[in-house]
Prior knowledge:
Helix content: 25-40%
Largest sheet: 5 strands, antiparallel
Structural class: alpha+beta
Strand order of the largest sheet: 11-10-9-12-13
Number of strands: 13
CATH class of the largest domain: Alpha Beta
Number of helices: 9
Amino acid sequence: xxxxxxxxxxxxxxxxxxxxxxxxxxxxxxxxxxxxxxxxxxxxxxxxxxxxxxxxxxxxxxxxxxxxxxxxxxxxxxxxxxxxxxxxxxxxxxxxxxxxxxxxxxxxxxxxxxxxxxxxxxxxxxxxxxxxxxxxxxxxxxxxxxxxxxxxxxxxxxxxxxxxxxxxxxxxxxxxxxxxxxxxxxxxxxxxxxxxxxxxxxxxxxxxxxxxxxxxxxxxxxxxxxxxxxxxxxxxxxxxxxxxxxxxxxxxxxxxxxxxxxxxxxxxxxxxxxxxxxxxxxxxxxxxxxxxxxxxxxxxxxxxxxxxxxxxxx
Length: 314
């Protein structure tokens, strides 16, 4: 039997492939952009790891997520061991459903307004956010793509009428409360096997594209230090070993309730210390330079977890 890795991004697969090979775990590549599946027959035996990405459509794999949903239903129907199964994919491709699940688990999320129809966005910003600072994001995104901050409803209107506007792939926009933090930092807590592994602080001063993989942040770019800050610039991604114990427990409980075993959960704290959770990424990637500085390897931990699941199945 093998580990079957379900994905649509060969570049993101490479680090996991190296880790699986290093741990001598037998595995197979299931690149789900297109293909044929005889649903009248049982799937192969093994452990199936789903790491389909919400941003697959940005790599010309428009229907990869929909195909994966069908394949996961087939696997589940035959009782196969699936890591990050149908519920995980459902939350991966819809931030609005993520927020509903997080709130149901007692996890605080930013105030968010779901908007269908580009023509309704400006009115929604004025009505629900008093025309003040608001973040626009697609309901189905990935890597922080399409996330923009607007300080006024007028600025939002100019963007929507301009050449840079891109419609979300599912037709749904989110307008979200802008959380003012004392520092331009967000934190992403990483979980493997449903348990906290480590967290990474991300410097957001250069923008919202937050994917920590080396293919998303080339050379682990450093943010320039301000004139009143330290002379040594801060790395864009910095690993920390712990987060608030209560928050960590709530996250682990949330993941267990939703059948998610591998994830990165992003949160930010405002000037009053209130923590807002705003993203659950079930196709989580890891930054190699940050891990090298910290002496950690999440892919090794993931490969060992998958190997243990395969051994248990055997």
